[in-house]
Write a structure and sequence with these properties.
- The protein is an all-alpha fold and 223 residues long.
- It is 66% helix and 0% strand.
Length: 223
Amino acid sequence: MALAQVEQPPKRTRSDGERSRQAILRGATELATIEGLEGLSLGRLAAHIGMSKSGLYAHFGSKQELQLATIDAAEEIFDREVTQPGLAAGGPLDQILGLCDAFLSYVERRVFPGGCFFAAAAAEFHAREGGPVRGRIQEFHAEWLALVVDLIRKAQARGEIAADADPEQIAFEIDSVMLGANAAFLLFADSEALERARRGVYDRLEVRDPEPDGGVNRGRAGR
């Protein structure tokens, strides 16, 4: 039989490999919010997603490589679920409120079973010294705070937030409220914690509460 007539097995395309990698990382982000990034052994992850360890080794050469790739994947999901929807609003004050609303929705919908990925990772690594994994978690959190601070400054320039307010302090308080809501929601499975967080942010920014029909008065309270 001529060689050209021999039926060859279909070749795995690069897109097949990429889809497999994405499936692995999605499983890794979910598992990490429950068992921690340190719990991401190749063996444990293989069992979680129903893949052989040898299949995982083809994508990740070490546990640290897997951890860093998992953080990158979680950041892409956070960007899609929180950052992009939040920044789709109009002016800077709307965007701050949009980011908070999107974050609370991301928590309530349990995009990750263990709540916010980065809140879980920060709690796990806050007492650990150095290392690239801790560094990536710090980098994400610093970028998130910097984004909120920048929006606050822009809102101040438009007269939407008091000009004499400290942007870093406001950003810190908003971030603390969001993290507290995440923790309370996970512990008590009570959406009231999320609503309290939302009201807390509106109060801090001196914005009237959301209107019953879902609209929001974005002007500063008392103006």
